[in-house]
Structures are given as C-alpha cells and as structure tokens.
Amino acid sequence: MRYLQFITFYYWNVGFKNFIKFIEKYPNINVIVAHLGTYETHKFFDLLDKYNNLYLDTAMVYLPKVFTKTWKENIELPSEEELLSYEDRILFGSDFPLISYDYSCSTEGLLNLNLPKSFYQKVFYENAKRIFGIN
C-alpha cells in the first residue's frame, strides 16, 4: 500500500487569504478544501488550474436551505459549467458524523442539480478511489 499525504483544509477558520499562503509554501501537498471554499468558492475554483493536487469537497454546500439559513445566504455556489469542468477535482463531502440533519440530505441537494450521471459517479466514488489509491 502506498502512503498518501493529504490535508483537509477547513475553510471556516482560515479563509482564502491564509490558504493561499499555505499552498504557496507547500505547493506539492495534496489538499482537500472543505465546503467548496464556501464564501470564496470562485477563488478556490480558480486555483484548480494552478494546483493539480488541490481538491474541493461538497460538504454542507447543497443542503436544503432550512439547515443552512444563517450561513448560506451569502455563499457563492459554482455554476453548472464550473462543476462539470472540474468534476475530476470535486469530492462528495457530508461532514458525517458531526451533522445535525439526516445523512440523506447531504446527497439530495447535489442530486437535485440534475447533472450528468458521469459527474455523480466521479464525485461520489471515482475521484476518492483515484486520489486515495483505492483498488
């Protein structure tokens, strides 16, 4: 089994300004940015072309608004085109087990985007399998 070095970067406490310092200092480390970068999503998507070792996860982003009303009002959601353009770099995220909603809500909003089946296969399964070296 090969050893993969990954860090999950939680946006909430650091933001893009601090993340960019980190990724520039450690440009070769594999990073998964949680919550698609939330309030600065487009800045994180812009970095995907520069850093081949950067990934984004979907945790909490596509939950029904009833669960995220207080923080979701100003969230920057990526366009369908952005999601499809970077479908190899997006991972499903749920924040499980630290969630206050039914687990199925983690997938419902994402599935309601009605994107191609190939997108969902990559996001829910193939991307994680590939980047974590799972056979």
Large-scale geometry:
globular
User: How many separate structural domains?
Assistant: 1
In sequence order, what are the helices and strands, one letter per element?
EHEHEHHEHH
Strand order within the widest sheet? 1-2-3-4
- Beta content: 5-15%
Biggest sheet statistics:
4 strands, parallel
Mean pLDDT comes to 83
Q: What structural class do helix, strand and pairing data support?
A: alpha/beta
How large is the count of helical segments? Answer: 6
Low-confidence stretches: none
What is the count of β-strands?
4
Q: What is the helix fraction of residues, given as a range? A: 40-55%
CATH topology: TIM Barrel
Distance between the termini: 10 Å
CATH superfamily: Metal-dependent hydrolases
CATH C-level: Alpha Beta
CATH architecture: Alpha-Beta Barrel
User: What's the gyration radius in Å?
Assistant: 14 Å
